[in-house]
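User: I've been trying to design a sequence by hand for this structure and keep getting stuck. Would you show me what you'd pick, starting by listing the structure so we're on the same page?

Assistant: Good idea, let's start from the same input. This is the structure you sent:
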């Protein structure tokens, strides 16, 4: 079972916490991680629009498989100029 480190930013950090480790079943992907987080903290659902993921500092899709020791970052939409 992979143990991944979660890093959340902005409002997601307030809802989910800044850093933590999560154990997932073998064969889990980034989308499975997000679903587990939403089950644990339903308020996160409202923050899913425009959410992007990064695995080990590289943007990835929700279908990206997870490996033990991965660091998954949750990146909400951001603005700037």
């Amino acid at each position: 079972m992979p143990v991944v480190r979660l890093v959340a930013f902005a409002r997601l950090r307030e809802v989910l916490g800044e850093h933590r480790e999560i154990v997932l079943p073998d064969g889990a992907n980034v989308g499975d991680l997000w679903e587990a987080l939403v089950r644990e903290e339903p308020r996160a659902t409202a923050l899913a629009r425009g959410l992007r993921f990064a695995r080990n500092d590289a943007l990835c899709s929700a279908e990206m498989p997870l490996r033990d020791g991965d660091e998954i970052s949750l990146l909400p939409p951001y603005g700037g100029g």
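That's my pick for every position. To get oriented when you compare it with your attempt: The domain at 3-75 is CATH 3.10.20.30 (Ubiquitin-like (UB roll)). Helices lie at 10-16, 30-40.
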